[in-house]
Design goal:
single chain; mainly beta; 5-stranded antiparallel sheet; 32 strands; 9-stranded mixed sheet
């Protein structure tokens, strides 16, 4: 049974209650007991899933993408939830909080929803008609199974409230009652000749366009409500164009397979940081000052960019780990990092502080 603890890399120890194992099992604190109702989200915004989410009450939900389920940190204690608690799989790849404050978990065995009290599995009927999701063995190298058709790798709730789920066999839309396979639907015109598969990231921009991308996607797709357009900014063989975020100026940023990343200004994909970056990115965040943070994907820490220079931070600077799955900005403007092997790390503008389990 796992025990929970917290650790501060700098200056002071954090007051964290430790979860202990008893003869009756592990005691789990309901994160709702620490709700701060003054912290709310604004309805009508697109919601993009990530591996780390701060919900509207201030709790942090995160997953390392391995066979550990999902963990919640309420500012005082950590609690871990697995299949025994109702998750469809312990392999949780992505997390989203919807307009109503419900949490959605994209797993290796479909979708699970959490309403604050219980977990509910919402099966996806795949294009093959498969709803009997089978368990897959972890890959010995990375610790998670190879994507099957029921693996939900990305979730978006668009501005109208419709959910979009990215899987290895395409994209599914969910209106709250029924699913439809997006790329096989009359709702989308796809004249690109390129199938929409292996969608690991979905982003809705300020104009309402929805972008789909990931690894082995042969470029990135943009859906304007009628037609799909395929872009290949990295050449004809582009197999990794990963939508990350739209910044305050309206530019959309994309990671790529090799050095650097793309910034799309509405007309042109411009290559940024080709000399400064050696890794790919799973995550990116813009802070309140308009600076950018990138989570490097090959054990290189995080990189800070202020439009003038690049600064790389690693464990020597107090960072909790060198493999970053997700970066998010909290409601107070702090930057949080989901460290692959060592919990959470927060940067308050001066210091990196680790919150580890």
């Amino acid at each position: 049974m796992k025990k929970f603890y917290s650790n501060n890399l700098f200056y002071s120890l954090l007051l964290v209650v430790v979860f202990f194992t008893s003869c009756n099992g592990q005691v789990k604190t309901n994160p709702d007991s620490y709700r701060d109702e003054s912290k709310t989200i604004t309805d009508g915004q697109a919601r993009k899933s990530r591996g780390l989410v701060q919900d509207k009450t201030g709790n942090f939900w995160f997953s390392n993408g391995t066979n550990d389920g999902v963990t919640v940190y309420n500012g005082k204690t950590f609690a871990n939830y697995t299949e025994k608690d109702g998750l469809s799989s312990n392999f949780v790849w992505t997390i989203l909080e919807d307009n109503e404050g419900k949490l959605w978990f994209g797993t290796a065995e479909g979708v699970t929803q959490y309403d604050g009290q219980k977990f509910t599995i919402i099966p996806i009927i795949s294009i093959t008609g498969n709803t009997n999701y089978h368990k897959t063995k972890p890959d010995p190298t990375y610790g998670f199974p190879e994507p099957e058709e029921n693996w939900v790798m990305s979730i978006l709730q668009d501005k109208t409230g419709v959910f979009w789920f990215g899987t290895s066999t395409g994209v599914y839309r969910y209106d709250g009652k029924t699913y439809s396979h997006f790329s096989f639907n009359d709702v989308a015109i796809n004249n690109t000749g390129v199938p929409i598969n292996n969608i690991e990231s979905i982003l809705q921009d300020n104009s309402g366009n929805i972008w789909f991308g990931g690894r082995k996607t042969k470029g990135v797709f943009r859906y304007d409500g009628k037609t799909l357009t395929n872009f290949k900014p990295d050449g004809a063989d582009a197999d990794w164009v990963y939508p990350l975020l739209q910044d305050k100026s309206g530019n959309i940023w994309f990671s790529k397979k090799t050095r650097g990343l793309f910034r799309f200004d509405g007309k042109t994909f411009n290559l940024i940081g080709e000399k400064e970056f050696s890794d790919f990115f799973f995550s990116m965040e813009e802070d309140n000052s308009g600076n950018f943070w990138f989570g490097n994907g090959k054990n290189s820490g995080v990189t800070f960019y202020d439009e003038k220079s690049f600064i790389n931070y690693t464990g020597k600077d107090g960072l909790c780990d060198v493999f970053m799955r997700t970066i998010v900005k909290d409601k107070d403007g702090n930057i949080w990092f989901n460290c692959k092997n060592n919990g959470l790390c927060r940067y308050d503008g001066k210091t990196f502080t680790t919150f580890a389990e």
